[in-house]
Amino acid sequence: MAKRSSLSIRIVEGKNLPAKDITGSSDPYCIVKVDNEPIIRRDDVIGKVCLTRDTLAAHPKGFSGWAHLTEVDPDEEVQGEIHLRLEVVPGPRARRLRCSVLEARDLAPKDRNGASDPFVRVRYNGRTQETSIVKKSCYPRWNETFEFELEEGATEALCVEAWDWDLVSRNDFLGKVIFNVQRLWATQQEEGWFRLQPDQSKSRRGEGSLGSLQLEVRLRDETVLPSGCYQPLVRLLCCEVKLGTQGPGQLIPLIEETTSTECRQDVATNLLKLFLGQGLAKDFLDLLFQLELGRTSEANTLFRSNSLASKSMESFLKVAGMRYLHGVLGPIIDRVFEEKKYVELDPSKVEVKDVGCSGLHRPQTEAEVLEQSAQTLRTHLGALLSALSRSVRSCPAVVRATFRQLFRRVRERFPSAQHENVPFIAVTSFLCLRFFSPAIMAPKLFHLRERHADARTSRTLLLLAKAVQNVGNMDTPASRAKEAWMEPLQPTVRQGVAQLKDFITKLVDIEEKEELDLQRALSLQAPPVKEGPLFIHRTKGKGHLMSSFKKLHFSLTTEALSFAKTPSSKKSALVKLANIRAAEKVEEKSFGSSHVMQVIYEDDAGTPQTVYLQCKCVNELNQWLSALRKVSISNPGLLGSYHPGVFRGDKWSCCHQKDKSDLGCDKTRSRVTLQEWNDPLDHDLEAQLIYRHLLGVEAALREKHRELSAGTGAGSVRTGPGAAPEDPLAQLLQVLQDLQEAHSSSPAGSRPSGLSRPLALQT
C-alpha cells in the first residue's frame, strides 16, 4: 500500500495589479512555492496568494476562481524545520522545563551570500535565552540546552524562535514554534522536527488593493492498494476492450455516458494509460472509434466534439507521440522564435510602425507588409509540410497502427465517392487540429521552448497554426470562408493538402508484421527520458571543487546519464542509472547559482561520488531533478538524507560538519516529481484513479443496471459472498464494492481524501 499525492496548478490571469516600473506598468510573472521552496527574491514582489490545506480541503473537486493578492511580509515568509527535545525534569526546588535546541534545516536564506547567520531565542515565563550564532548556514547545528523553572498550573506557552543575525541592520525573523506547556506536563518529554511557523500578528493592507489572480488548483491524495486488489477491475475492463473487435461492449459506453464533461479528460487519460500498460491502447481507441462512428450521421461532425474518443486520442498522441512532434516541429518553432519577424495578414491589424523602415528609410506600405508576411508564412508552412512528409518512418509504430485503424473504420462508415476525403480529415482532425496546431500556438506547454512567446512571435505562431488547420481541413470552402485575408496562403495550402494526403496514405500503410518489427526494434533501444545542455562542475587536483564549469550535452535514458560535446557527438556514460542514490538541489551559496543540482551515486568500486550540474533556469532544474528521480525511484540504497552544500576545504558548507562521510543535514525528496506526459506508467495508480471515478458515479451505474435488468427480466445485482454475476455491469458493481471494502480496511480509511500540503504563489 502506498500514498500518491498530486497537485495541479493553472494560473489563468491577473487583474488590477499595481505598477512597479517607471513606465506606469509591470512585467508580472508568478513563482509557485509549496512548503519549503526557497523564498529569496531579487525582483519587486507585488503580492502573494496563499491557499491553505483547509481551503483546498473545502474544494475536493479543486479550487477555481479569483483570489486577492496580499502583502508579502518578511516575518511571514518562513521555511524549514527545527529539531528540538523538550523534557520536564526534577529540580532543586521545583520541576524544570529543559529545552534542547539541536539543529535546523532548510532555513530561509536571508543574506546576499545565499545563506543566513541563524541563532535561536527561547522564551518562557518572562525569561529569554539564546543559542550561539552559526555563521553562513541554513543547516545549523547547535546542540545547546536551556532550563526554566516550571510552576504548577502555569498557562504560559514556550516559544522557540529562529533569527538571522545581522551586524548593522535589524535581525531577520526565520520562524517560530509555540508549545503548550500543560501538554508537556502530561507527556514529560517530546522530541522531533517541528515546522517553523510565521508571525501573523501584524495588521494587513486592505484586501484587493494589490490586485487578484485567477487560479485553478486541485490537490489530490490517493491511497494505492496492492496490485492484486485491482486485478479484477483491470481484467474486466481489458475483457471489454478485447471483445470490442466483435462489436462495442457494455462498460466503456456506460463509462462515457456517466462521465461529465469537466472530468472527461482525466478519465480518458487514466483509461488510456491503463490500456497502454496492458498493451491494449490501440484496441481501446479502436473501440472508441466504433462508438463515435456508430452515433455519427454527418461526416462533417465526426470527432469534432469533446467525446471520450477525442479526449483519449489527444492523451494518446501526447503520451506516445511527443518525441515525434519535437522532431517534426522543433526546428520550425526555433526558426520562428529566432527570426522575430513582424507578421500580419489581417489588414485591419497591420501596424506599419512596428516593422521599421526599408530601403532609404522609407516606411513600408501596408501592401508590402502583407506581402512580406505572406512570404514568411509560406516559407514556414512549406518547411513544416516538407518535414512532415519525410517523417513517416520516424512516427512511432503504435501511432501509425492506431491511425490505420481510424482510417479504415471511417472509410468503412463513409464509403461513397463524395466522402473520399473524410478518412483523411479524420486523421488530420487529431494529428493537425488537436496535436500539431496546439503545439504551434503554445510551444512551451509542449516543451518545445523554455519560455512563452512574446506578442509578436505569438501572432506569427497563431497565423501558422491557422494555416496548418486549413491544410488539415483539406482546404474546404468552409475553412476558407472564415478568414478571407488568409487567401495569400492558398497556393501553399492547396499544395500542402496534396502533400498531406500522400503522407497519410504512407503513414497508415503499415501491416501487423511491420508494426511488430518496429516495436521490437524500438524496445532494444533506450530512448532519452530527457536531454539538453548542462554545465558540469569540475574538480582540481585531489578532488578540490572549483567554481568553473564546462558546457556539455547530456542525455538521460533508462540505462545511464551520459554526455557528449554536441548533440550529434558520441556519448560517454557518466553515471549508470542503477548506481544513482539521490538527485537533489544544491544551495545557492555553494556555487553562486540557485540552479545547481547534484547527482549522488556509487562508482563501480562502490565508492560514493557526487557530480554537480548547473541548469539554465529554475524550471529546467526542476525538470532534470524530476526526470532523474523518476528513473531511479526503484533503485536499492536510495539515500534518506544528503548535504545541500559542498565539502570545501575541511567541512561541509551547509552544516559546517568536518566529517566528509557525515550523514546529510537535510532530507532527500526522491518522490517529489513533476507530472509529465512521458512519465513511466504507474499501473496501480491509474487503476486507483479509475476506481475513484467509478465510485463517484456508482449510483448512476446502479440505476442503469436496474433499467437494463427490468428490460431483460434479469435479477438484481448479486453482491453477497461468492456471488459471480455474469453480465459486465453487475461484475463491475461487485468489483467496486470489493475495492471499497479493501479501502475501508486499509489504515488510510474508507475513501481517498483530497488533503495535502499548503500552497503559496507570489507575483
Quick structural gist:
With 763 residues, the chain is of the alpha+beta class. Helices cover 36% and strands 23% of the residues.
Helix-strand blueprint:
Elements: E1 2-15, E2 31-34, E3 48-51, H1 53-57, E4 63-68, E5 81-89, E6 96-105, E7 118-124, E8 127-130, E9 141-149, E10 158-164, E11 172-179, H2 181-187, E12 189-195, E13 212-224, H3 227-243, H4 251-258, H5 264-277, H6 281-294, H7 308-339, E14 357-358, E15 362-363, H8 366-389, H9 397-413, H10 422-441, H11 455-472, H12 477-482, H13 490-507, H14 512-523, E16 530-540, E17 544-556, E18 560-564, E19 572-576, E20 580-585, E21 596-602, E22 608-614, H15 618-631, E23 641-642, E24 647-648, E25 651-652, E26 666-667, H16 683-696, H17 698-712, H18 728-744, E27 759-762
Antiparallel strand pairs: 1-13, 2-27, 3-27, 4-13, 5-6, 5-12, 6-9, 7-8, 7-10, 10-11, 14-15, 16-17, 16-22, 17-18, 18-19, 20-21, 21-22, 23-26, 24-25
Extract low-pLDDT stretches: 714-725, 750-758
* Annotation, overall tally of beta strands: 27
Strand order of the largest sheet: 19-18-17-16-22-21-20
Q: Give the strand content.
A: 15-25%
Structural class of the helices, strands and pairings? Answer: alpha+beta
Please count the helical segments: 18
Mean pLDDT: 85
Largest pleated sheet: 7 strands, antiparallel
Terminal CA distance: 39 Å
- The 3D shape can be described as globular
Helix content: 25-40%
